[in-house]
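Example (one chain per record):
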Amino acid sequence: MTDASDALADALRRDAAALLQQYRSGAWVPCAEERDLARMQWNAHSLRANLREILAAVRAGRLVDVLDPAVAVAEQAGAATADGTLLQLRRLVDALTAPLNVVGEGSTGVESGTGEAAAAGADS
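Predicted structure:
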């Protein structure tokens, strides 16, 4: 990867981690369409195609700000910086696509840990 690609991957990893933290704290709640977008296939071609076809409501959301630059990073898959960033994105997506658990008011409604355990295990 080039220095510019490394910088993009690092910024994207930080943004994905921040969005995941905001989701877990309840500061950000994705709309249903954003959750659907998170369920797409994770390769550069699929990301690019799905981002071209998204609804205006999703385009205005927070998730697309993280997924849009992910296309360039996904094209560099195999490089250490890119792979670390894609893992952080996978953690975010796993949290968004985990089975919903209806709990008390103020909760994000996500069973904690279901996605991250799988992502961490896949990295081992």
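Caption: Residues 3-25 form the longest helix (23 residues).
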